[in-house]
Structures are given as structure tokens and as C-alpha cells.
Known about the structure:
The protein is mainly α. Helix content is 84%, strand content 0%.
Amino acid sequence: MSLNLIELWSKMGLPVKAVVFVLTIQAIASLTVIIDRLMFLRRAKKTSTQFAKPASELLMKREFPALKDLAEQMSHIHLAVLFRTGVASFLDAVSRGASRTDANEIADRAITRKQAQVSSELYRGMNVLASTGSTAPFVGLLGTVLGIINAFHLIGENDSGGLGTIGSAIGEALIVTGYGLCVAIPVVLLFNWMTAKLGAHELALSSASGELSDAFRSYRSPSHAHSDSSEPPSMNELDAELPAIN
């Protein structure tokens, strides 16, 4: 016995067709988000590396003005956005006469606020996947219930409970259940995988921001460099203190 989906669709009641339509919309929306986030992850890995290498060199030399200029040139990269925000806030505070500690705190708060915005961009659309993965099986179950109700309705109309009478109604009910599961299962798996990938990227951004904050603590402005009798840290000490950005 072959399964004719077109025939089943033609015999479906309007409520069941509405359920199938909702599941299809969920599947299309989820597929759109998945493609968008996969493209983002691929692009982010490439662009972050392009910025991290020169930024690491400038950071170890404490050349913050040059680092700010580099970040502004690559403002389409999330890591560069965080660095630009932190460095700009720190240099602005120093230029207004704030102590190094106060300037570092101001920069940390600015970076934290910007990280919240970046996190929102990272997980854009992920709520669609979460909603689809959690609701699609129940939407399919709703279609099953409606299909069974239609089957009992046919029994009442025909005064018979034969398989020929209710077979198509039971078939459509099971098909909708299976459709809901087919939508939900891959979405849940991809949601978990992509959440882990995005979380790792977010952690890398946070780690790089922490290295920037550490660099602020050892910064000497030109005016402080002349007035400070102590010698600045050697390059070997800076290298030991600040690892390269990965």
C-alpha cells in the first residue's frame, strides 16, 4: 500500500491543514535562522583572526591609540567593536585626568555594556529555534487530535467503524504527528550545537576583553612616564603577563 500525500492533503479537514501550515512556517523560519547563524560563525572565525593578530602585537606594546585606529577600521568585527569601546573609554578618561584605576573601571563598564549588545547579536534568532523545537511536537499532536476527531465524525456520519471509512482520517492524523517530529528533532539538535558554538565564541570575546583590561592596568600615559621615577616594565615582563589573543 503506497502513501499518497497529495490524496491525504486533499482529504484533510481545514483545521488539520492549518496545523500543517503552522508547522511549515516554523520549519522555514528555523531553516532561515540556521543558515544565517552558520554563515555568521564561519565569517566570525575568519574575521576575528584577521583582527586578533595585529591587535595582539599593539596590545603587548601598549600602543592604545594605534589599537583604537585599527579597531575603528575593522568595526564590522565583534572583537574590534569591544576593543574600540574599551580603548576609547580608557583613553578618554585618562585625557580628562582620571587615575589609571578609575580609567580602567570606566573602560570595564563600557566593555560590559557593549558585550551585552554583542551577545544579543550573537544569539539573534535562536529563540525561533528554541520555540520551534519545544512546540512543534505539540503542534503535530494537535493535528493528530483534530484528525482523530474527524475520524469519529466520519464514523457518526456513516454509521460504520470500518477501516475504509476512517482510514484516511487516521492516516492524516499520524502524518501530522510525524511531520511535527521531523521538524522538531533536527531543530533541537542544531540548536544545541549552535548554542555551544556561539557560547565558545562569546567566551573568546570575553577572554580577549579581559586581556585588554589587564593591559590597561600597566599602561603609562606620556605625562605619567616623565613623572614616574620607576622604570617601565620590560617587554619580556609584558609578554609574560599578556598572552597573545587567540
